[in-house]
Automatic annotation (TrEMBL):
<dbReference type="InterPro" id="IPR036056">
    <property type="entry name" value="Fibrinogen-like_C"/>
</dbReference>
<dbReference type="InterPro" id="IPR014716">
    <property type="entry name" value="Fibrinogen_a/b/g_C_1"/>
</dbReference>
<dbReference type="GO" id="GO:0005615">
    <property type="term" value="C:extracellular space"/>
</dbReference>
<dbReference type="Pfam" id="PF00147">
    <property type="entry name" value="Fibrinogen_C"/>
</dbReference>
<dbReference type="InterPro" id="IPR050373">
    <property type="entry name" value="Fibrinogen_C-term_domain"/>
</dbReference>
<dbReference type="InterPro" id="IPR002181">
    <property type="entry name" value="Fibrinogen_a/b/g_C_dom"/>
</dbReference>
<protein>
    <submittedName>
        <fullName>Fibrinogen C-terminal domain-containing protein</fullName>
    </submittedName>
</protein>
<feature type="domain" description="Fibrinogen C-terminal">
    <location>
        <begin position="1"/>
        <end position="75"/>
    </location>
</feature>
Length: 75
């Protein structure tokens, strides 16, 4: 993900779409989305948000990535 999102600044947008059983579509876009390098614990960042979903990603912004065996969030 780091290599895919590294490059010219502002060049990547992450779009998430959720479709309900009744065909209602919810979406969110994170502009200038990037995943940092391993040395920075794969922190995610972006510069803008739009969509019809609540911005629930904001709590993850600039936080290090965690797994079951590597807890980087002190939780």
């Amino acid at each position: 993900m780091h290599q895919l999102t590294t490059g010219q600044p502002g060049s990547r947008t992450l779009r998430i779409e959720l479709t309900l059983w009744n065909a209602t579509v919810f979406w969110a876009e994170l502009r200038s989305f990037r995943v940092g390098p391993e040395a920075d614990k794969y922190r995610i960042d972006w510069t803008g948000y739009s969509g019809n979903l609540d911005d629930s990603m904001y709590i993850h912004r600039s936080k290090p990535f965690s797994t079951r065996d590597v807890n980087n969030c002190a939780c």
